[in-house]
Structures are given as C-alpha cells and as structure tokens.
Amino acid sequence: ADTAFANFDMITYAKGNAVLRQLGIWLGDDFLRGVNAHLSGHPFGNADLADFLDALDGASDRDVRAWADAWLRTSGFDTIEVTRDGAAGGVPVLTRHGSRPHRFTVAAYDEAMRLVETVWVDLADEPVRLEQLAGLVVVPNAGDETFAAIRPDAWSWAAVSRGLSDVADDLTRGLLWWTAIDLAESGAMALPALVDLADRHLRPERHPVVFEAVGEAVLKVVRRAGHPDEVPAQLDVLASIAGEMLAVGDPLLDPAAARILATTSHDQDLLREWLGRDDVDQEVRWLVVRRLASLGDDSFIEAEAARDRSVAGGFALLRARAAVPTVEAKEEAWARLWSGTTTNHEFPLLSHGFWEIEQTELVRPWLTRYVTDALALAQRSGQGMGQVIGRSFPWLPHTEATRRELRDALAEALARDDVPTVLARWWNDQVDELDRRR
Questions:
Q1: Distance between CA atoms of 151 and 154, rounded to whole angstroms?
Q2: The model's pTM
Q3: Would you call 50 exposed, middle or buried from its count of C-beta atoms within 10 A (0-12, 13-18, 19+)?
Q4: Which stretches in the chain have pLDDT values below 70?
Q5: Phi, psi of 139 (to 5 degrees)
Q6: What 3-state DSSP class applies to 78?
Q7: How far apart are CA 108 and CA 114, in angstroms?
Q8: Residue 342 burial (CB count, 10 A)
Q9: How far apart are CA 275 and CA 290, in angstroms?
Q10: What is the pLDDT of residues 399-410, one digit of tens each?
Q11: Strand pairing of 128-129 and 137-140?
Q12: 311 - beta bridge partners?
C-alpha cells in the first residue's frame, strides 16, 4: 500500500502517456501490428510486460527490449538541446543529454514564425546536424511526440519570444508555452521574462485549452518562484489579460478567463459588482468571495454560505474563512488543520486558504511549524492523509532566506527514521524543488 500511494503520480499518468506515444512514433506501423498480435495472443487472459515486448519485437526490426530498458527501467528524463554551428542562424545541431532514443518532428520557421518545413529526426547517442534548416528557427518535438525537456538555441528563442502568438499550429504553440514555463521553473528564464511573454502573447490566444493551461501554469510559477514584493504587479498582469479576454466575449474562453480574473484581481469594486449579478457561475462566485476575503473584505462569506448550501459550498466556505488576513483567522484555521478531525477533502481547502499567495509575511510564523505539525499528524494518520499533507506544502513567493530556512527544516525532518513513507516521498520532491529555486 505504501508503494502504491507513493508512486501513483504524474510519472504514472503524464509520463506513462507520453512514453506510449513515443513508442508508437518510434515503431511506426509496427507498433499497431505488435499490439494486434499481443491482443490476439492473449484473448480473455492475462499478460505481462515481457509478453507485450515479445509481440512488439516480433513485429519490428528495432530492438524493442533495449528501448524498454532505456525508457521503462531508467529514472529521470532526457534533455534535447539545440545549438548552432556557426554564427546566429547557422546550422542547427540537436544533442541529447540522457540515455534514451527519440524520434520526433522538428518544425522550421522563418523569423516571422511562419512554418517553412517539418522534418523527422531520430536522435540517440550522436548529435544530429540539420543542414537543410540553416538560417531557420527550429522547434524540436513540435508535434509533442516524445518526453524530454527542450533547450532551444538563443537565436531561435529570440524569434519565438517575438512571435509566439503567430505560430499557427495549436499543439506547437502549446509546446512552446510549456518550454517557456519549464525554462522559468528550472531557473533558465527569469520569472519577469515569463510574465512579460504572457503579457504579449497570451492576450491574443484563442484556443481555450492553451489559454487556461498557460494562465494557470504562469500563476503556479509566480507562486513558487516569485518574490513577495513583485507578486502584486505580476498578478495585475494576469488579471489584465483575463479581463481583456472576457471583454472579447468568447463563450469557450470566458469560463477560464473569469476564474483567472477572480483569483488575481485587486479591483475590489469589480469583484463586488460580480457578486451582485445573477449570471456569475457559483464556482466563480466563491473564487470572488475568497479573493475579497484575502484582500481584507470578509463581509460576503456568510451571505454566500447561506446562498449556497451545497457540499461544494461548504468546502468553499472553509477555504474562504482560512483566507481572511488576520492572526485570529489563521490561528483558527491552523488549529482545525492539525486537529486530526479534518477530512482529506477539507484539509487541502483549508490549507490553500491558509497559504494565500499575497500573505507571505502574515503566515511566515507558521512556515516551519508546518514541518513539525505535519509530521505529527502524518504519524497518527494513514498514508492517504500523508499524501494530502504532502500535497498541501506551503508554496508561496518566499524570499531566498525564507526558502532556505524551509528547505533546511524539511531536510532535518527527513533525516529522521520515523517519517511515513508517502509523506517522505512528497517532502523529498519539495526539497528538490526548493533546491532548484536557489
């Protein structure tokens, strides 16, 4: 049970999906032939990984078992780096840092980000030169065919930064956004540069999935990597983008834009006006109530609770009360968090309300207490609650000194031998994340 709780995560789902896609791309039509042979060979029965690999191996000339060893039995992820042979705009060279074979498309654009050509590339131990793409902007893995971090060359990225919203293909545009987010999360791009990219290129975005995912991801990076003094202005940028999107009046984009605006706006008059309307979605209404509460106006909480007596409304009420920026409200929420009577549905909502993004200074006295109180609760609870506690980590826009203090407190706790398995897994991940922020 401990192993199951500790390992069913994004590696299982997101990476698993990506790996299967890469296997299909790498084998081509042989993949379908192998899958058909596998299913035909085990009707109404059970099979294991070895059986599946046997079927694929029999359908292809490629070494499927070696592929499985590299992709399924090797930890970590690869990085695909682009460099230029010669001056800026010279011959692009792709280099893999890692141990896996990759097959993917490289899209080539002119400096206005108009598509010129797409080529397939097999990348393994040896770098690949793309002579035919000299002088062009190159985007590796343009069709999201493999699982790897992308590190573009400076010349290409400068063109992408100027013309990201001009990329016609939705999938490639989304991939470039995720490259930017990964660069910011890893420290290769400064957070202000990511916010500026959103300011220039998220405004014209018209694909609802791309808009919502990028808006939420940028907000997540602001929360995890921002500086307390800079966060209000960065939230204002996101609120401005969302407000502009709402003004367009696209029914596919409005829900996401409303949620982002309700989460980031400092315009209390606008937020109060929303609560006086009948056409505002109930989820958004609670976001507005919580945002007002976090900004110091908690006068709408009880009225909204009376208006919405659903189970979801009860959960939203907990989060809104915990967001009130007073010592008394925080102490009350803190006591309830660690009482041992809070359910696994209530706990993350209380926690999210407690750790409001612009309340870093207010909640600072509770930061290291999180480590000791979380450990105590996890020790007397099951692994399921340990996972909830680990996921409710206090990610906030800390100063470097505060981030280091929190990291050291976690590392000290992990040095003990009584940290429950699942909580230890989550805390090790958080230590790694905090180290990346240094």
A1: 9
A2: 0.92
A3: exposed
A4: 1-11, 438
A5: -125, 100
A6: strand
A7: 8
A8: 19
A9: 12
A10: 999 999 999 999
A11: unpaired
A12: none
Three-class DSSP labels, 161-177: HHHHHHCCCHHHHHHHH
Q: What angle do CA 321, 410, 329 make, to 5 degrees?
A: 15
Written as six digits, the tokens of 32 are 């379908």
Residue 182 C-alpha from the chain's centroid: 9
> Could you tell me if 71 and 19 are in contact, meaning their C-beta atoms sit under 8 angstroms apart?
yes
Torsion of CA 160, 166, 171, 177, to 10 degrees: 40
**pLDDT tens profile 38-82:** 999 999 999 999 999 999 999 999 999 999 999 999 988 899 999
**Structure-token pair, residue 308:** 């919405």
Q: What angle do CA 67, 70, 72 make, to 5 degrees?
A: 90
Q: Rounded to whole angstroms, what are the CA distances from 124 to 46, 128, 159? A: 34, 9, 27
At 379, the amino acid letter reads Q
Residue type for position 67: W
For residues 19 and 49, what is the distance between their CA atoms, to the nearest angstrom? 14
**Rounded to the nearest 10 degrees, what angle do helices 191-201 and 231-248 cross at?**
10
User: 194, 177 in Cβ contact below 8 A?
Assistant: no
- Per the CB < 8 A criterion, the answer to whether 427 and 435 are in contact is no
Q: Which of 100, 108, 64 is CA-nearest to residue 80?
A: 100
Amino acid identity at 160: V
38: left (phi over 0), alpha (psi -120 to 50) or beta: alpha
Buried b vs exposed e over 251-274: b needs ≥16 C-beta within 10 Å? Answer: eebbebbbbbbbbbbeeeeebeeb
And the tokens for 25?
């791309």
Output the six-digit token pair for 69.
Answer: 């060893």
pLDDT at res. 418: 92
Short-list 91, 102, 95, 92, CA closest to 81:
95
> Residue 86: its pLDDT value, please?
86
User: What pLDDT score does 6 carry?
Assistant: 63
